[in-house]
Each structure stands twice: as structure tokens, then as C-alpha cells.
Amino acid sequence: MTATNPTETHAGGRRRLMGEGLGRYIAALGQPKGLIGSGLLVLLVLAAVFAPILFPGGVDQQSRDSFLLPSLLHPFGTDELGRDIFVRCVYALQVSISLVIVAVPIAAVLGTLMGLSGAISGLLGEAFQRVFDIILGFPSLVLGICIVIVIGPGWLALATTIVVFSLPQFGRLARGALLSEQGREYVLAARVLGVSRPKIMIRHILPNALDPIFVQVSLSMIGGIFIEAALSIVGLGIQPPTPSLGTLLNVGIRYVYAQPMYTAGPIIMLLLLALAFNLIADALNAQVLKTRGE
Amino acid sequence: MAANLLEVRNLGTTFRFGQAEVQALHEVSFEARTGRVLGIVGESGSGKSLTARAIMRMLPETASVSNGEVLFESGNLLDLPEARMRSIRGSKIAMVFQDPQAALNPVKTVGWQIEEALVVHGMNKSRARARAIELLGQVGIPEPDKRIDDFPHQFSGGMRQRVVIAIAIANSAKLIIADEPTTALDVTIQAQVLRLLVDLKSRLDIGVILITHDMGVVAEICDDIVVMYGGRVVERGAVAGVFAAPQHPYTRNLLRSMPRIEGVRTARLPTIPGSTPDLSRLPSGCAFHPRCQFAEDICLREVPVLLPMAGSPEREAACHVARQNAGLPPDPDPTPSSEPLAGVRTSGSAPAILEIEDLSVTFPGGGGWLRREKPIVAVDGVSLSLRPGETLGLVGESGCGKTSLSRTIVGLNRPSSGYIRVAGEDVTDFGAEAAAHVRRTVQYVFQDPYASLNPRLSIRQILSEALEQRGLPGRQREAAARALMDMVGLDAAYLDRYPKAFSGGQRQRIGIARALAVEPRVLICDEPVSALDVSIQAQVINILADLRDRLGLGILFIAHDLSVVRHLSDRVAVMYLGRIVEIGPASDVYEHPLHPYTAVLLSSTPKPVPDPSAMQRKLVLGGDMPSPRNPPSGCRFRTRCPIGPLADPSRRICIEKDPLLVGPGEHKSACHFPDEAAGLAVQSKA
Amino acid sequence: MFGFLARRLPSVVFMLLATSVIAFLLPRLAGGDPAQTIAGADATAEQVAAIRVELGLDQPVYAQYGRWLGDLLVGDLGTSLITSRPVGQLIMARLGSTLELAIAATVLMVVLGIGLGILAGSIRKGAGRAGLDGAVSVLLATPPHVTGLILILVLGITFNLLPISGEVSVLRDPLVGISLLIMPALALALPQAAMIARLIQARMYQVRQEEFVDLAIAKGVPPRRIVLSHILRNSMGTAVVATGIRVGELLAGAVVIEAIFARNGLGLMAVDAVSSRDYQVVQIVVLGAVVIAVLVHLLSEILLAALDPRIRLQ
Fold it and tell me: Which stretches make up the ABC transporter domain (chain B) (predicted)?
């Protein structure tokens, strides 16, 4: 049974309809998994944003000693120039987080629209599916190389790679939801009533299509963070001297014997980010399944 | 009386959900005997399938037997080690499942699957193959030596169920448990499979336990009956006795609320109020008491025990009232109202509100760039008309095109040729204006009450979406929504609930209310009760009849169940493979069918009247409906027709000439030999 | 079977053509004038124009594409504008290294993926299930380069079990060659194997719910045989398709893995070629990677069709 307020007016009902979806996602973050995941994410984002305040010395501040072992002063030790690896890692988070926070939502909105375009024109929907097929045929790093060639290495090429790479994931989810929803009897009933296409889309199709897309946003963030790392490790991503988790690894691997923390530090940061998004995705997914099961 | 083959005593089963335990079966007891068919009848949630699985010790992982015993060959099956039990499964007790599409492994040949049943019980491979061919022949599969290496998807549904039955009898099991073996099949195929089961029972001298929701099937092939409700046996005995004088109010009401294909039609079906209970939330005392007209205080407090009835030791019932009164008291309302069903509301001269002329609907065949499949002609030159206040029943088996036809009328499919006129206006092109006209005039009630309401919208939102389409301003919608709820017999206080809070019957009423919101003049009902429990069906049927009479609605009522159609319809059209083969006033079509297919449908439909010889007299069709991709030439029914070229090769006309839909007066049929078709029906009734 | 191929073939051809167009356009989209590159910075306009004619760059783009594709089909992969060596030669020089890595990784992926998947699909309760699920989830979420770096840190540095960089052909010195191959191959294989395992596990759960498994139990079939003949047999299609899809991603991982483990394979060559703007080499590597991925995928679908009579007998 749903607990509903019997005195609720019709207008209230409509407001709730719009708000209901987002409310559920926020509720998911209240679950233990979601709470840990979002807590961890907030912590990492705050650290990245406030890095200049937390570490006023800046990212390139050098101490006298290179390759110091981890200590309270230098949690991850120091690098070949005596810079604090932990500080560099925290600054590096800025790149990873800014990339996915810009690129993934763009991909989600574009991809979802492309996936749903089949509702307006069957031909358009088909055409976008073929585009997705081509993108999916390109393994992620091959895609990255192609985009780097065209745009030139850097933040923009990485962001573009993440957008293009994530597009088909959202597009296919949206199209799948569209196709399955379009055949549902309640959608047919709305059509027989003469409800307009945009209304059917907003009221009946979109709410159900959004569930898997919100989960995928979280998962694509992980994908994006790892794409940055991969391309920067081989030197095709962020260019030095800007620190990113990938560029740190690019140098760190050369000094893996002298300073293992140079490699381990960025990896710890990568895994923490991945963990945070994974927990959030899990919590969202559980919430979605719960609604479906009702 | 034959000796007991299997005895179930005080069987109890529990489900575990995390920490919580729910008792699903309570003190279930019955016997199965050799040479007899025991029917276990119940609606959804009655525990009938769970009982079958408990006997086979195939309960789901979350369920376990809490008490009781299952005696078979002087041992308790529940005490056997798993390995011993495995040697009994399939060799001494076998099982037939509901869905023949799902019951066979899709990547193994049917031969392999039959042989497996033999090999795991010790037969060697080459003998098993010979036996498998023999078995396929025994269950009536033509050319068994050729078909044995085919895969399940190469067989039709009915043929697959025959294969499953072949597996069941492979090791000469003494007992076959069939769990709704014909529910997924069309009525003509159901008749084939039931006849096969009865034949095998007498030929092989085995016992059969048939689990079903259909009282008609019980009446026609069972010897004994166990009626289950809320996880308990509420009544059991010989079929004839129980049907003649049921001793539990549930049994009696269930039988009464079934629409009949024969006999007098009454204005309203007697209904059972409420809905079937959920096993996890059973009412106290007698689980049926909230729906029972006799319920007394004791029924709320104490669970009635299944006890023999005074005077007939073979009959047992679990009812306080029946016990106290030495038999169930007579019904307070035994005679249905005498108000005639047809009459005032149909005025034969009123102009038709819906006219369909020579309508065809074609679906593209699919396939890629290199290979195109032939298109499917789902509806082929159909003409129909419907007057206000009239119900036109449209019957036919799955794949006959009835749903394609009805969806085309409301614009969900596009016609490939022909005309549709709604209230005199041609709407075939379904342009903006025509569409608006159709939507104001014609509405649709869907089959699946669980799929036709958006789970995310409250009932208020669902209804006001529809009211908005009628152009009702926001502030008037509240009152209108309440009026709609009232119209379909639901409390307006439920408006803020979501669909999940409602039972199937209630959801279907909401679906009807939504359709009525635009004040249509025609309602198309596509199998509106086929997904509902029998005790709920009557509620929905009555509401439809009431609304039709009150609002003067024209109803196009589509169903595969001929009894339901008969109850509600003034006129009936029978569809086969995209065409109408017979149409006319309901009483004429049902009593004097002029097409052999109608005669066969009528004869195949199980009737809830016990009759030991019914099965033998049935007209049972061979084969399956051909694919609408490649319909036969001439008469489309000729490949299965009992009076066509199959029976009499000289009747070339059936192959060469397409019969026209003609006949005396309003009653028309598309058969070259209508008189013989009429004779066929008489013969099967005798 | 013919019908199945007939339906699949158009989309495969479309995919290959689309990829070839993209690969063809890559150097052109990158900017820069190839004729100028060849001629050198201080060449005269006439010299550059002559080279342009020689390369066919004065012709319309579609004609250039046609010529390029025609050359490819007869085995002429073009010439590097930077090193002036035939691309085919450059690739052959590096192919062995990548081939060893790819074969080792694919074998590991298939064995680990299917093995883990069957294990995870068979154990349905207790600590074993939780442990397996956890392990698969972690592997799944960790991409090859991170896996590789963790392997280096753990197996290479902390326990000092395996050498962390360099390569020796397995054919020349099997022992050293394999010891150098284990970590990169594992790094490539593990994430994909986890993906395959997850799909197989899910499929096995799903098949277990099917009514034909109930029928097999009701026939008296022993559990082992039910798992083998009914559940696994019906899950194999998923395993095949899952593997086919992952091969492309696995190959592409070589780009980073070769850099991390200092292996002189095609991946590293591609990265270097991008840095040195040697686009003629990159375009062939890109095309090759996608073509292989598409063909392996098609192969897996053919295998699936062979396994499933519903497709095979259409």
C-alpha cells in the first residue's frame, strides 16, 4: 500500500509526478551504500576544489629531499624533485573530476535524446543506432587515439573522447526503454485516448527510461576517469606540467623501484573515485529494482 | 473402488522471506487412484501448484514442507533420501508442465529429451531411441521416426505438449501430475491434449492428478475433485456429486458465477464479492469468510476442518455452516433475476455506430536487405457493423487476427485496404480530424490489467489524463473522476492509490473507467476478463453489461472463451485466419452453427457439467492453424475441416473456391456445405 | 544458417566501410599538408605541387579514397611520410610482440572468464558466492592499465616475483618470455574475463529458472547432468557472444599495457606514431583494430548460430 494523503489536490499530484523520480534517486543515496558512496565522493570533490587552500604551497612546491618514504608530513612520500606526491594527487583530482562532471552529463543528455529520437522519426532513431554501432565498434582507446589526432592532446580531446565513448551507452538504454515502453498497454491506452506524443513521452515513457540512465551516469563517470588515466599514461592525454592522475602515473612508473608510492598514490585516488561512483550506482540500481518490483 | 496410488496427509508448506515465515499450505489431504483422474481446482494463490511440487519434492528454494506425509507405494516420499526420490521422479511419478513453449530444452532435439528420461533410469541408448520413436507415435505425432531429430521450435504448441506427455509416460509411470497442461493452449488444441490424457489413462492404466483453474475441464475429464482455497482443501469428493450439490459455499458460488455456453442466459451473473486472498495475508478463521454470504461468528474465529459430510462418507467439506446444518443451506438468492438480457436496449433499426467494410490489415514480413519474408495478412477482407446498445462478440483462437482488427479500429494499426466508419464518418485515413472523432467515440479496454495501468501514476492521475482529453477543465475533473469510480463500483477514496494496491479485477474496472472518461459510444474490449480469476470475471462482465445498458454503449467484445462471449453478446462473429467464417445472432450461432469451425469450437469448449461421455463425443480437430503468411487456397479452414477435402477428397470446391459469407437473413457463414456443418453440431451435442 | 548470415552481412559490411572512411579521413582531419611534410620546410611551391600530384592529392577526396581502399585490398598499406618506410613493413616488425601478448591474453580471458562464470553461476549460496561475487565486481571495475600497475606493485615490487618490464620472444627463450608475458597478459585479460564471468553467471541463473530445468528434475535427471546438459548448454551462447564482444576491447588495451610494461608492440607503435604525427601508420593500426574486432564479433555470432538450432535452422 502506498501511504498517500487523501486531501492532496490534483495540482499537488502533478507536482509530485515531476518530483517523484528525482526524489527516489535522492532517497537511494540515503541507503548505507549510497551514503558511503556519496560521502566519499563529496570528500574527494571538496579536496580537489579546495586544494589551493588546503595546500597553499601549490602543486610544485619542492622540499629538499626526493623519494622520501611516506610519513605524516608526506603521506605518499615525495617524488624525484622532492614534491609531495599526496598534494600532487589531490590537485590531479581536479582534472579527473572536472572531465567527467562536464563530459558525462553532456553524453547522457545527448545520448538519451538520440536514443529517444525514434519516437519522433523512426528513420532518425535508426540512423542514430547505426552511429552507435560504429562507435561501439571502436575500442575505447582506439577511439581516444582518433580523437587526439583530430583535436590534439589535452583536456578537450579527453572530454570529447569521454562524450563519444559514453554516447552509445545512454543512447541504447534510452532506445531500449523507448521500444519496450511504446508497446506497453498503458501507452497504447494513452494513444487511444488521443494523448499527444510529447505528453505520452513525458508522462509515461521518460520516467521509466530515466532509471537505467541515472545508474549509467554513475558508471560512465568511472569509465571517463579511467579513460583519462589510460591516455595520459601513454602521453596522449593531459600534457605535463599539469598534474593529472594519468600524467602522475606516466612519470611514476619510471620511478617504480625508487618510489612505489609514486605509482600507488594515483592508483589509490583512481580506485577511491571508482569506488564512490560504484557504490552510488549500486544504491541507485537497488532503488530502481525496488520500484520495478512493486 | 481402486486402491490408493498416492495419499497426501496433512501436508503443510512454509515459505521463508528473510526472517518471516509464511504458512502456504495447511493440512492438505487427498488420495489419487489408479485409473482415475483427480482434479485439483483452485484460483491463483490457492496453493494447487505448490501441492504438486511438494509431492514431487520440487519446491522452490525458499519453500519447505513443514509437516505431513506423502504416501506412495507404502513409503513416505518426504522421508526418502534425494537419490531415491530422483529414481522415482520420471519413472514412477511423472509431471507435465503448463507452458509447452518453455518446458522443452530449446537446444536439444525432442528425441534426445525423451531418451534422456529413459537413459537416466537405466535404459541403454539404442533401445531408448527405439522407445522414443514408439512414444512419439503413441502421443499422436505423425511420422515419429522423422520428427524425432527435430528441435522443439519446429513443433507447434500442442505438439510440444504431446512431447512433454511422451516424456511423462516414457518409463510407464504409475502417476502423472499435470499442472495446468492446457492453460497455454487454444481451445481446439486443449481438446486434443485432454483427449490424449484420458486415452493414455485408460490405455496404460495409470492415475492422473490434473491441476487446473477450469471447472469445465474438471467436469469433462476428472473422476474426483479437490477444491482448494487459501492454501487449504475446502471440499473434495466425486466430480458428479460435488457438481450436483456442492457443500462448500466457495465451490457453489464458483460454479454459479461461471458463464454458460448452453442453457438459459441470465441478466446478471451471480458474483463472488471481493478477490482471491494472498497466501501471505490470509483472513482469520475460514479464509473464505469475507466473501461468504453465510459467514457467522465462528467462521471468523475458527478454521473449519475438512470432515466427511453426513450421509455421504466420500464427500468432505470444510465449512462450519454446512456442518451445523448437515449440508449447505439453500442459497438466499438461488434464482437469478428474471429480467431478460436482450430487449429494450437494442433497437434493430438504429443506424450503426461502427461500420467496417472489407478491411484488411497487413504486416510487413521483416527480414534484412538480402532476404525479405512474405507479409502477414492478419485481417483479410472483414466487414462488421455495430449498433448502439449492442454487443458484438468476436471469437477466434490466438493468431486469428481479432486483436489486429480491433486495434486497427482505434488507429493503433493502419489498414491496408477497406473502410472504417464511425458514427457515419469515414475515418479510414485516420487524419487529425478523423482521429479526434474516433477518440471521442471509440475507446479500448485492454487485456492485461497489470500492464494497462502505468504503475507510477495514481488512479486520480490516470483518470484525469483521460478526462483532460475530453476537454474537461481542471476543477471539474475531481467530480468527474469520482463519478467514474462510482460507475465501475469502486470507492472514490481509492483515487489517490497507485495501481499496485489493487487486485486484477479492480484494475480492470479502473481500465474501464479510464475508457469511459471521454464518454465514448463504442467500447472495444479485448479479452477483458481472460487474465482474471474465474470468481472475479463475473464482476467485470456484469459491470460491462450494466454500463452498456445504462449508457447505450456499443460493445465489440473480443474473447477466445465462447462461454463469456455467449453471456454478453447479442451477435457473434467467428474469426479464423484473418477472415470471418460465421456471423449472426448469438443464439442462432451457438445453437445452429453453420460453419464446421464454429461447431468444433463449441464442442471443444469445456462445459462445467459432469458428463463421462463428453470427451468421446467431442469434435476434435487434427493439426494446427496454418501460418497467416501462407494461408491455404480456397477455404482457409479446409486443412483441418472435419467435413472438407480431408474427410471427402471429392470436395475439390473447398480447395479451389473461396466460400463467400452468405446465409439466411442475419445468420451467415462462409462454408460450401453449411447444412452439413449444422449436422455436425447436432451430432456432437447428442 | 544462410538466412542468418544474409541478415548479418549487410551491417558488417556497413561497419567495415564506415571504419575505412574514418581511418581514411584521419590524416586529413589532423591538419597539416602531407606534401609539405614530405617536401620539407624549405621546399618551393612547385616542388610541393609536384609531390601533391604524385600522391594523388590533387584529385577529389572520393577518388583518393577509392585509390586508398583499392591499394589496401591488394595489400598495399601505404608508406609512412615520416620514416618513408612501407607501413606494412613497420607493422610486420612489431606484429610478433603484440601477437604473443594478444594470444596469451585471449587464452587467459577465455579460460578465466568462462571458469569464473561457471563457478559463480554454480555456487549459489554461502561465503563462496559472496567471495566470488566480490572478486568479480572488483576485477570488473578495474581497467587493464590499473590492473597492470597494481600487478607491478604487488607481484613485481612487493614480492619481487616477476620482472616488470621488457620483452623477450617466447619463441626465443620460452621461460623468460613467459615470465615477462604473464603480468601484461593478465592485466589485459582480467577485466574482460570478469565481464564474461558476470554475463555467464547471470545467464546461468536465468536458465535455472526455466521450466525445462524443472522438467529435467521431474524426469529424474541427476543434478550434475542438469548443470551440464541443460544449464551450461543453454548458457554457452552467452559465453561465446560475450567473448566475441570483449576481444576488441582487449586488443585495444595493448596500447596502454605495452607502454606500461615497455613492450615494443603495435600499441606502442601507434602511440609513438600519434606523437610523431605519422598518421599513415596510425590509420592502418586503427583500421586493423576495428576490423579484427568486427570480424571476431561476427565469428562469435556465427558460432552462436551453430550452437542454437533456433537460429541455425531458420
Answer: 6-255, 354-602
Structural domain span for residue A43: 17-293
Interface test with C, best of B57, B370, B372, B373 (most C CBs within 10 A): B370
pLDDT digits (tens, 9 = 90+) for C71-128: 999 988 888 888 889 999 999 999 999 999 999 999 999 999 999 999 998 887 778 8
Enumerate residues 6+ apart whose C-beta is below 8 A from B163: B100, B104, B110, B113, B114, B136, B139, B141, B152, B155
How far is it, in rounded angstroms, from Cα B49 to Cα B71? 18
Separation of alpha carbons B601 and B669, rounded Å: 15
Query: For B495-539, how does the pLDDT look when each residue is reduced to its tens digit (9 = 90+)?
Result: 999 998 898 889 999 999 999 999 999 999 999 998 888 888 988
Question: What confidence category does residue B263 fall into, taking pLDDT thresholds of 50, 70 and 90?
Answer: low
Structural domain tally of chain A? 1
Residue C123: inside a domain: yes
Q: Decide if B106 touches C, using CB distance below 8 A.
A: yes
In chain B, list all ranges with CATH 3.40.50.300.
342-576
Query: What angle in degrees, to the nearest 10, is found between the helix axes of A10-30 and B474-487?
Result: 80
- Total domain count for chain C? 1
Q: pTM for this one?
A: 0.87
Chains contacting chain B through 3 or more C-beta pairs under 8 A: A, C
User: Which chains have 3 or more CB–CB distances shorter than 8 Å to chain A?
Assistant: B, C
pLDDT value at residue A7:
34
Residue A73 burial (10 A CB sphere; 0-12, 13-18, 19+): exposed
Q: Which domain holds residue C197?
A: 94-277
Q: Is the pLDDT of residue B289 over 90?
A: yes
- With contacts defined as CB-CB under 8 Å, which chain A residues touch B474? 10-11
* Chosen from C22, C271, C284, C297 to mutate, greatest number of chain A CBs within 10 A: C271
CATH number of the domain within which A230 lies: 1.10.3720.10
Asked if A185 reaches chain B (Cβ–Cβ under 8 Å), the answer is yes
CATH number of B342-576: 3.40.50.300
In a domain, C197, yes or no: yes
For residue A213, being part of any structural domain is answered with yes
